[in-house]
TrEMBL record, chain A:
Pfam families: BPD_transp_1. One of its GO terms (cellular component) is plasma membrane. It comes from Devosia oryzisoli. Gene3D superfamilies: MetI-like. This is ABC transporter permease. The chain crosses the membrane at residues 70-95, 107-129, 135-154, 193-218, 238-260. InterPro entries: BP-dependent_transpt_permease, MetI-like, MetI-like_sf. The lineage of its organism: Bacteria, Pseudomonadati, Pseudomonadota, Alphaproteobacteria, Hyphomicrobiales.
């Protein structure tokens, strides 16, 4: 597999941050929750700080580097779980619509159209207002993000797969539909869905960090990149790094993922290039 | 044309009705509204009195009808934060958001369309790659981070623009720039791919064979056909602008609906949240209807087939 330089850099960066997120508890030099009011808003090394807190400290004297690692872990974990839930729900609905056709398909596709029309963040905020915030509610809501894309995609792919000879042959052999779908159709359409996963992942990160930025997502004492940025916003004048560092982390993560997704799409799914 | 318009209008009303039902059901999920109104110290008599006054002792279908009637009259109850009618709280904020949203959409189109069209005409050139790179950057850049960077640079270091509030055109610059950037990138990308589709069609090649110059070929021959799918994406971009406005308004303390929504969700001011959700749904449905109609205007084939 020949990869352009840019894609290589993007993949290396993603591997690096995934490593940081997974091993956050080993890599963090200090306890991310340990406050030290005597060392508030210390600057990072490159802005005249010391190596004791090489990325500086926040308004409660907590170590920014350690907090960044944990925030990265939370944000990536939520985005990964959220993307997976959305893909599973959406793909299942797509299979259901394509299999049953008729009224089932009409209802599912009407829901898809509705979801595509109304901004998802509004729905999330409505449900958060009604149910109140908890990690479980938030995770489930993030999970629903982008489900309609998978439904539309899977439905189209399954409909065309059912016209193919291999599916008709299996049907003739009286293999059950669940087996045909799970063992034969799914592997055939998986590459298109994986491409969609990579393209949706950045959008999910942006949704989570955006809501956390507003204070409506991840709640303290937990932290996410968006929440860090939102808290740091109040200290822009004294401590710009508190908002810029998590912002850069979000930006480079979504950017790398988008570059990887574009590359994967061009490789695995050349037909969908025209977008 | 009229028939299909009526059909669309009916479907639109049906969608709105479904949204209203969903909102009603969700609101009832939010816990017992009576105990929320009465507070923890209320006696059983007080609870019963409050239930009777707000109609919560009626059967659910009747409550639903009352709710629909109230909604049609624009009565959504009181905001628990300001004790004013929720619809008044909402309407007060609408002009600011409309100003921000329409300016951003305009900027996004004015920037994105030419970028995308020129990129398509010069496909595979350095300029093309540059524009595509920019659009990826625009997508990956979180709007709250972009807004904060702009504040850092233009307000705190250069002291050129006010970092929050509204009133003068200077207040508008950074929110509009933040909000239009990612849309401009998406529009550029889409305009490019639509243009490429059209430019590769035989009729453009024949125009070239007839000696029609490149500029005229692009603008007069190709652009009208390419603009049809672009209009569709604008309808969808509209939703992204609404979503973006929630964050951008919060970043720049812009006194609009988005900031109101964020604040109301945080304080669980359900009456206000409900007005905003319903009106957003209505706006989006109307925007889609407008796009459908515009389709008919732009594409004579749609007009004829629907007659």
């Amino acid at each position: 597999m020949k990869m352009p330089v840019l894609t290589r850099i993007a993949v290396s960066f993603l591997v690096l941050i995934a490593f940081c997120a997974v091993f956050a508890n080993f890599l963090a030099p200090l306890d991310p929750l340990h406050t030290n009011l005597l060392a508030r808003l210390k600057p990072p090394v490159f802005a005249g700080g010391t190596w004791a807190n090489w990325l500086g400290t926040d308004e409660l004297g907590r170590d920014t580097f350690s907090r960044l690692l944990y925030a990265l872990r939370t944000s990536l974990l939520i985005a990964a779980i959220g993307t997976a839930i959305g893909a599973i729900i959406g793909t299942t609905l797509g299979f259901t619509a394509a299999h049953f056709r008729g009224a089932t398909e009409q209802i599912i596709m009407a829901a898809v159209d509705f979801q595509a029309a109304v901004p998802f963040i509004i729905l999330v905020m409505f449900v958060l207002a009604v149910l109140g915030n908890s990690m479980v509610v938030f995770l489930v809501l993030i999970g629903f993000a982008g489900w309609e894309v998978y439904t539309r995609l899977a439905r189209g792919l399954v409909l065309s797969a059912r016209q193919r000879n291999y599916v008709m042959a299996l049907e003739g052999l009286e293999m059950s539909w669940p087996t045909i779908y799970a063992r034969h159709v799914l592997p055939n359409i998986a590459s298109a869905i994986i491409v969609q996963l990579t393209l949706n992942f950045p959008a999910t990160i942006l949704l989570e960090t955006g809501l956390s930025f507003l204070g409506l997502g991840v709640q303290p004492p937990d932290t996410s990149l968006g929440l860090m940025l939102g808290e740091g916003r109040n200290y822009l004048l004294q401590a710009w790094w508190l908002s810029v560092l998590p912002g850069l982390a979000i930006f480079f993560t979504t950017l790398s993922m988008s570059i990887l997704g574009d590359w994967l799409r061009d490789r695995l799914d050349p037909l969908s290039q025209a977008r | 044309m009229l028939g299909s318009f009526l059909l669309r209008a009916v479907r639109m009303l049906a969608t709105l009705f479904v949204v209203a039902v969903a909102v009603f059901i969700m609101m009832r999920f939010s816990g017992d509204p009576v105990s929320a109104l009465a507070g923890p110290d209320a006696t059983p008599e007080q609870v019963a009195e409050i239930a009777a006054r707000w109609g919560y002792d009626r059967p659910l279908p009747e409550q639903f009808l009352t709710y629909i009637a109230d909604t049609l009259r624009g009565d959504f109850g009181l905001s628990v934060r300001s004790y004013e009618p929720a619809s008044a709280v909402f309407l007060e904020r609408v002009p600011a958001t409309l100003l921000l949203g329409l300016m951003s959409l305009l900027c996004a189109v004015l920037i994105g369309m030419p970028l995308g069209i020129i990129a398509a005409v010069n496909q595979h050139s350095a300029y093309d790659r540059f524009v595509m790179g920019l659009s990826v950057l625009g997508f990956a850049m979180p709007n709250f981070f972009l807004g904060i960077l702009l504040i850092l640079i233009f307000s705190l270091y250069l002291h050129l623009l006010p970092s929050f509030g509204s009133g003068t055109w200077q207040h508008l610059v950074m929110p509009v720039a933040t909000l239009s950037l990612s849309s401009a990138g998406a529009i550029a990308r889409f305009a490019r791919s639509c243009m490429l589709d059209v430019l590769n069609q035989p009729y453009v090649a024949s125009a070239r064979a007839r000696g029609i110059p490149g500029f005229r070929r692009t603008i007069v021959h190709a652009l009208p056909n390419a603009s049809i799918p672009i209009v569709t994406i604008l309808g969808l971009r509209f939703g992204d602008l609404i979503a973006g406005a929630i964050i951008v308004e919060t970043v720049f303390a812009w006194p609009g609906v988005g900031r109101l929504l964020a604040a109301s969700v945080a304080s669980r001011d359900l009456a206000v949240v409900q007005v905003i959700v319903l009106s957003t749904a209505l706006t989006m449905i109307l925007a889609n209807l407008a796009v459908d109609l515009l389709y008919g205007v732009l594409d004579p084939r749609v007009r004829r087939s629907s007659r």
